[in-house]
Specification:
Blueprint (H helix, E strand, L loop, with lengths): L10 H4 E7 L6 H9 L5 E5 L6 H8 L2 E4 L6 H14 L4 E4 L11 H9 L5 E12 L3 H18 L11 E4 H5 L10 H12 L3 E9 L2 H6 L6 H12 L3
Parallel strand pairs: 1-2, 1-4, 2-3, 5-7
Antiparallel strand pairs: 4-6, 5-6
Helix pairs in contact: 2-3, 6-8
């Protein structure tokens, strides 16, 4: 018997959007206004920002959860996922706070989950569209895809895309331990281990100078690899 909530019942109540944020006062309000037009349950996990991120999130109408110390994006995602599950979420979407994601893409992720037996819908910029993506960053992302394919066995096209959707069952099997940026690869490892079905969905990623400064840099790649290797020793 399928106990997963149906999107046809009340998507406004069953869908929860998790937005990890650290010092995002420049973009958070615009991101939340776009999300809240279609989804009433938006959680901002403020990872101990020292700017007005938390206040702006509250003013916009989002649920706010705040870390007392800075723990990293992976920890913020796990906090948000746990909060959403406790609130009875049927579907959980993760969404970046830096303005590079489009809220309109969420509907395609959810429709894919609702119309299939998949528990994970992973956004792919390489099946979809990118704007402002420079060559060094593209190469780094392609290397991450190859690394993730080799270590997880998943036939993916995009390894570090923060736009994802999970069913309640899918979200419940995730236990993110990599607090920093290596969490994206850890999520893929846990999806592979769960043996639950995943699908990739084309999405658009808009790169700006701001989002590129906040996101992955080539100099971070070694640190991410070391985090993943250290994490694998404890699995």
């Amino acid at each position: 018997m399928n106990t997963e909530p149906s999107l046809t019942l009340d998507p406004m109540d069953s869908v929860w959007i998790v937005v990890p944020a650290y010092n995002e006062e420049g973009t958070i309000r615009e991101v939340l206004v776009s999300l809240l037009r279609s989804y009433r349950n938006v959680i901002v996990v403020d990872d101990c920002s020292i700017d007005a991120t938390g206040a702006l999130a509250t003013d916009a109408g989002a649920h706010l959860v705040r870390h007392p110390v800075n723990l990293g994006q992976g920890a913020a995602l796990q906090t948000g996922i746990t909060f959403a599950l406790q609130k009875g979420a049927g579907y959980i979407v993760t969404f970046d706070a830096d303005g590079q994601h489009r809220s309109a893409d969420i509907a395609a992720l959810l429709a894919t989950l609702g119309g299939s037996d998949a528990d994970f819908a992973l956004g792919s910029r390489f099946l979809g569209t990118t704007t402002g993506l420079d060559l060094p960053r593209r190469l780094l992302l392609k290397v991450a895809v190859l690394f993730s394919r080799m270590t997880t066995g998943l036939e993916i096209t995009d390894a570090h895309n923060g736009l994802r959707a999970f069913t309640r069952r899918g979200a419940s099997v995730l236990q993110i331990c990599q607090n920093r940026m290596a969490h994206a690869s850890e999520i893929l490892h846990q999806i592979a281990k769960s043996r639950l079905k995943f699908v990739e969905v084309p999405v658009t990623i808009d790169y700006t100078q701001y989002s590129k400064a906040k996101g992955q840099r080539l100099s971070n790649s070694v640190n991410i690899l070391l985090e993943l290797l250290a994490g694998s020793l404890h699995r």
